[in-house]
Design goal:
The complex is a heterodimer of chains A (116) and B (111). Chain A is mostly beta strands and 116 residues long. Helices cover 0% and strands 53% of the residues of chain A. Chain A is built from no helices and 11 strands. In chain B, strands 2, 4, 5, 9, 10 and 11 form a 6-stranded mixed β-sheet that branches. The chains are: A mainly beta (116), B mainly beta (111). Chains A and B meet through strand 4, strand 5, strand 9 and strand 10 of A and strand 4, strand 5 and strand 10 of B.
Amino acid sequence: GAVVSQHPSWVICKSGTSVKIECRSLDFQATTMFWYRQFPKQSLMLMATSNEGSKATYEQGVEKDKFLINHASLTLSTLTVTSAHPEDSSFYICSASLGGLRYGYTFGSGTRLTVV
Amino acid sequence: TQLLEQSPQFLSIQEGENLTVYCNSSSVFSSLQWYRQEPGEGPVLLVTVVTGGEVKKLKRLTFQFGDARKDSSLHITAAQPGDTGLYLCAGSTGGGNKLTFGTGTQLKVEL
């Protein structure tokens, strides 16, 4: 089955620093990956669509200069939270699909980011 | 923006009870999925429905897609503590591959 690995599972950083989160498709190639943000007790909010070999597509209200996405290969997408602030603390989750919507999406296990 | 409203938002029941979770929208979806998420983990796909009126059964879980493809329901029979989690519906419109997630239903099943 399709497996998506996300790393790190949790990270604590100081305000003003940058944090990189990796999302890997382990046994399949993913031309498209998605990044979500989830606050406690809430649903997932799509932040951006990561496209292999091209620029990411950001959802309205998401700062592209703050949340840098790089999809340099068919198995790896990274999300970098730049100049992190406490309000960026959240649960970040990536997803990818083996074969499109009909097959559903496989999600990473998420990254808990805490900015102090 | 397509909105998917789930109800109820929270549900706490005893083991053995039945329950139904609803997912409603004013938009038509080409496909709709249900996920279950546990704390600190990513959502796990339960089912995908694509045809209006479609009903799928997965052991004690029954999923239905509305005839107009605007709504869906998840029915759990004889709930068990292991069913505890956040249930999310998610839909896609047109030919796009982006998912819009519902507002979520937090289910707790107690002994």
